[in-house]
Design a protein that fits this description.
The structure is a single chain. The chain is an alpha/beta fold and 293 residues long. It has two domains: 2-179, Nitrogenase molybdenum iron protein domain (Rossmann fold, 3-Layer(aba) Sandwich), CATH 3.40.50.1980; 188-291, Nitrogenase molybdenum iron protein domain (Rossmann fold). It has ten helices and eight strands. A four-stranded parallel β-sheet has the order 2-1-3-4, covered by helices on one side. The protein has a four-stranded parallel β-sheet with strand order 6-5-7-8, with helices on both faces. Helix 2 (27-37) packs across helix 5, helix 6 (160-185) packs parallel to helix 10 (281-291) and helix 8 (225-238) crosses helix 9. The protein is globular. The chain starts with a helix and ends with a helix. It binds zinc ion (ZN). Zinc ion is lined by residues 54, 126-127, 133, 197, 199.
Length: 293
């Protein structure tokens, strides 16, 4: 009997104080969850930062990662529509069901830009709820950090003081960085840019840049020669500074446009890990606010 009591006493703290296992879809959510959760949360990031966030394959290794998760945080705005629903279904874990209180959709907590005004598909095949790349406005990062803090407190209230303290530290640091980035970008205000896909919509919005066109004719539709030729004419007329390009599409069409129009191609990482040097959220925005010269 004594033996059992001893074993119970030994095991009890392990279960009581076991870390929360939180699965998140993208690396930027992982970085925020680690910043707020610190040593109370084990964060499992599903997608890699250099993958195209729109087209991820729901492979079995990802199902294994969500099977034992205590909670799931996703970007939302239909960015994960092609790959997360099959993962959730196959994992059969009630804690990551979209109706569970341990499930968080970040898109519900920020204002989405470019909401379509009609429900037909004339605006392209992706993003029917509006542009979901909201984390690329560094001001939104603070809102998202606060949302994740509240979420962690709601499912693990015994550590609420830890989450509050980590959030306060993060927001102090982030507010200082926001000032630095704002002054770095001050002379870029009113600059025109071209993009492959409108990934930088929120970054442009934050710093007053105007995206005049995209290399893809519509969101999710690959470039066509007719659209490319029209784009070259538009660039000659409007004089944008550059083509902002993601890391996961081929730059072939952008290089061609660059050659014909004389504007440069600037690689813009969209997430932590998109380039080897982008190790965290600070280095992501340090890079982005230095990229356009
Ligand atoms: Zn997109």
């Amino acid at each position: 009997m004594k033996k059992y009591i001893f074993a119970l006493l030994f095991l009890l703290p392990l279960t009581l104080f076991a870390n929360l296992s939180v699965a998140v879809t993208y690396p930027y959510i992982g970085a925020l969850t680690k910043a707020i959760g610190a040593d109370k949360v084990d964060t499992v990031v599903l997608a890699k930062g250099n993958w195209d966030p729109h087209f991820i394959v729901p492979r079995p290794s990802l199902i294994a990662k969500v099977r034992d998760a205590d909670a799931l945080i996703m970007n939302g705005g239909q960015l994960e529509i092609g790959w997360l629903p099959p993962l959730i279904e196959r994992a059969s874990n009630p804690k990551i069901a979209t109706t569970a209180k341990t499930f968080l959709d970040l898109s519900r907590h920020v204002e989405l830009l470019q909401k379509p005004t009609s429900v037909d598909r004339s605006g392209g095949d992706v993003h029917p709820e509006g542009n979901p790349h909201f984390h690329l406005d560094p001001n939104n990062i603070l809102i998202l950090a606060g949302t994740i803090k509240e979420f962690l407190i709601s499912i693990d209230s015994q550590n609420s003081a830890v989450y509050e303290k980590n959030y306060a530290q993060f927001s102090d640091m982030w507010n200082k960085k926001l000032n630095t980035w704002k002054s770095k970008m001050a002379d870029k205000n009113a600059l025109k840019v071209v993009q492959y896909h409108n990934v930088m919509a929120y970054f442009n919005h934050a710093y007053g840049l105007t995206s005049i066109a995209t290399i893809e004719p519509l969101p999710g539709i690959p470039p066509s020669s007719k659209h490319t030729m029209e784009l070259i004419e538009l660039i000659k007329k409007e004089s944008p500074c550059c083509i902002l390009h993601d890391v996961y599409h081929d730059t072939k069409t952008a290089e061609f446009i660059s050659e014909k129009s004389g504007i440069k191609v600037v690689i813009m990482p969209h997430d932590v890990g998109a380039l080897d040097t982008i190790e965290d959220l600070v280095s992501l925005f340090d890079y982005l606010t230095s990229a356009i010269k």
